Amino acid sequence: MLGFLKNPVVVTAEINVNLVALTVVGLISRLWGLSYPRAVVFDEVYYGQFVSLYMKRIFFVDDSGPPFGHMLLALGGYLGGFDGNFLWNRIGAEYSMNVPVWSLRLLPALAGAFCIPLTYQILVELHFSHCAALGAALLILLENSLITQSRFMLLESILIFFILLAILSYVKFYNLQRHSSFSGSWWFWLLLTGIACSCAVGVKYMGLFTYMLLLAIAGLHFWRMIGDQNLSNVSLVCHFLARGLALLIIPVAMYLSFFYVHLTLLYRSGPHDQIMTSAFQASLEGGLARITQGQPLEVAYGSQITLRNVLGKPMQCWLHSHTNTYPIRYENGRGSSHQQQVTCYPFKDVNNWWIVKDPGTQQLVVSNPPRPVRHGHIVQLVHGITTRYLNTHDVAAPLSPHSQEVSCYIDYNISMPAQNLWRVEIVNRESDTDVWKTILSEVRFVHVNTSAVLKLSGASLPEWGYRQLEVVGEKLSKGYHQSTVWNVEEHRYGKSQEQKEREVELHSPTQKDLSKNLSFMAKFTELQWKILTLKNEDTEHKYSSYALDWITMDTNIAYWLHPTSGAQIHLLGNVLTWASANIAAVVYTCLSLWYLIRRRRKIYDIPEDAWQLWVSAGQVCVGGWVVNYLPFFLMEKTLFLYHYLPALTFQILLIPIVLQHLSDHLCRSLLLKSMFSALIIAWFSSVYLVYCTFSPVTYGEPPLSVAELKDLRWKDSWNILIRKQ
């Protein structure tokens, strides 16, 4: 039985020394002196705020993209024991001792380092030589801009890592297609492709560009499979379903999971709550939840309510009135009804309270049992403090003359009768008998007499209206625009007919946990919509640039400046690498056109397998550059040089591909090959020299003198910071 112990157990492993060496050198280049400078560097001032909010479990909304990248940065803070207590208000501010700088910068640095072996593996899997793969990896290693971007608490290196991982996974999967379909390794690389794509999109929406590219390539490959007569229909269906699962379903599921974790972690109320709906706010601990806890769920006749406009633009506000009236005549000469003003007020105020009244009675209290208001019911809205009725009529609104004025009716004993009946329409109802509910129901108020809809115009009233927002009756309201939709935020059951007692906050009889009524999908949908539609005002930044400036690196970004010495950090690339990448792209394009024209004439300059290799490399590298660069010409947002880094990475991959192709197919003689190799060595040495030249502003040390800084200004458009003597 124990005979197998007579022989030693032998484990044989193949170790790619190139890969190991590249990984080690990459880690050194990215991790060396990672805590320096111990100060806030450029966009760390932006991402650090979100890390602090994660540490404190406070909800926030970032319109720049999904939460996965922020969570990875927060993971670094968590592993370092960060408590979130730091004021991220100024670039260059010194970090306090409680901030684990090394830990916060660790994950971006690791991602940047691992991009180097990934680059090597991609070219090997594309069937290029190990020499070409090594060259590509070294170019990424010596690219100053990628080093700078990966050494700080920023997201671009993490994004590029997942992009390259997705490319490598798909290429490995494709290479296994012919001989190992549906094997364990085949499934592993296919599933990893989908996972990496979802992670890339989850870090930044820029990852969507590469994801779309891979879907297109996968679709093209499957289209070719359909023409393969050796594959049965059942086999084709299985291949289609496997790709659908791995490249569509799993990425969507993972994307949802990022938001699930995000919303689970951030359960406390914070500064960004107010842009969310009342229902979302009520689901968070503290904030609105403290106000609404215990209030009745169903709105009844006699209910005291505040009405919040769902749109939330230009700011959140509540339906409001006060004793002041509209001017008899406006500055443009138009007249008004001189009725009591109705506005939308962006602050909590006692004048935001309204009473839901049954037009058939004079009662302003809730009966026992309460009579709930349902979809389609006719109500009157009585202003709680002034007891005047919400009214609209055929008088032009002060700032929106095409719409009706909304007011609280004052009886002046003139021929202007009250028109104060409103029909409640629940927009998000499930049936026509739905009850109007606190926070959860989104309602429109349709004027019975004129069919106008109560709407927030968004215009700011003049001084006579205290700069509050205009509310109008919109006659031609098509569809359910959010400016016409309102929801009850605070709610009490009225108990007294006496005006003074009514102004006192009333007892709430029943406690209702409204947060349980908002599902994850409802919260996800709302948060996703806010991320996509919330736009901060794009202001001109000192270091913003245009996409056309990036190709020739006519711009740079000063990330950090030492307060006393000449030490500074800039986002600047390796000039020679960028120029070579552009030349490689031009050469690839020209050669491809030449080959296509010649092949059209039945002239084949290179073997078929070399042509297929050339095309597949172009799909990945040129395609990756195109999809990650050209969309920025269509974007209306503030752009920076770092937006170009994913496209640049693909372009750098193209350099050794073009060089190997020229060496293999255009250098026919041994002499030409030797001369070409010598040129490549000289060129690579120059790349290294440029890297060394700019490394002081890549790593921030050693400090440079004024003369040395001036020598680094190779282009007039570069903004190298020089202190005045």
UniProtKB/TrEMBL annotation:
It comes from the Eukaryota. It is found in: Endoplasmic reticulum membrane. GO terms for molecular function: dolichyl-phosphate-mannose-protein mannosyltransferase activity. InterPro entries: ArnT-like_N (IPR003342), MIR_dom_sf (IPR036300), MIR_motif (IPR016093), PMT-like (IPR027005), PMT_4TMC (IPR032421). GO terms for cellular component: endoplasmic reticulum membrane. It holds the Pfam family PMT. It is a multi-pass membrane protein. PROSITE patterns: MIR. The chain crosses the membrane at residues 68-88, 100-120, 126-142, 154-174, 186-219, 240-261, 575-597, 609-627, 639-659, 671-691. Pathway: Protein modification; protein glycosylation. It is an enzyme of class 2 (transferase). Its main location: endoplasmic reticulum. Coiled coil: none annotated. This is Protein O-mannosyl-transferase 1.
